[in-house]
Design brief:
This protein has 2 helices and 6 strands. By secondary structure, the chain is an alpha+beta fold. It has one domain. Strands 1, 2, 3, 4, 5 and 6 form a 6-stranded mixed β-sheet that branches.
């Protein structure tokens, strides 16, 4: 399925981001879910090795599938998968948006 395009880890959260194809976002979903499963299992194995030191493994992992303007969000747990697949979030970065928001310059 390929590598994760971007991964962000903080002390409490893990986020995997996958670039989706504009005309077929389902491929991005499939890729991201496979990556989330792999990251979850890898982290769970690492947790068993680190138990002695009191470290916890992630109970859930966040996933994002994006085309750049269309964003879909996923939460992966060992019990279920939650998604915003019915409604994507549109982010349009236009010249006027940049002009009206000086922090982006």
């Amino acid at each position: 399925m390929g590598r994760i395009d971007y991964a962000i880890k903080s002390l409490e959260d893990l986020l995997c981001i996958t670039e989706g194809k504009p005309r077929n976002i389902k491929i991005g979903y499939a890729q991201n879910l496979a990556q989330l499963e792999s990251a979850f299992q890898t982290n769970k194995k690492k947790w068993t090795a680190d138990q002695t030191f009191g470290n916890d493994y992630f109970d859930y992992i966040y996933g994002i599938v994006t085309t750049g303007t269309e964003w879909h969000f996923i939460i992966y747990t060992s019990d279920s998968i939650y998604s915003t697949s019915e409604s994507e979030y549109q982010i349009n970065l236009t010249k006027s948006a940049v002009k009206d928001n000086p922090e982006l310059l």
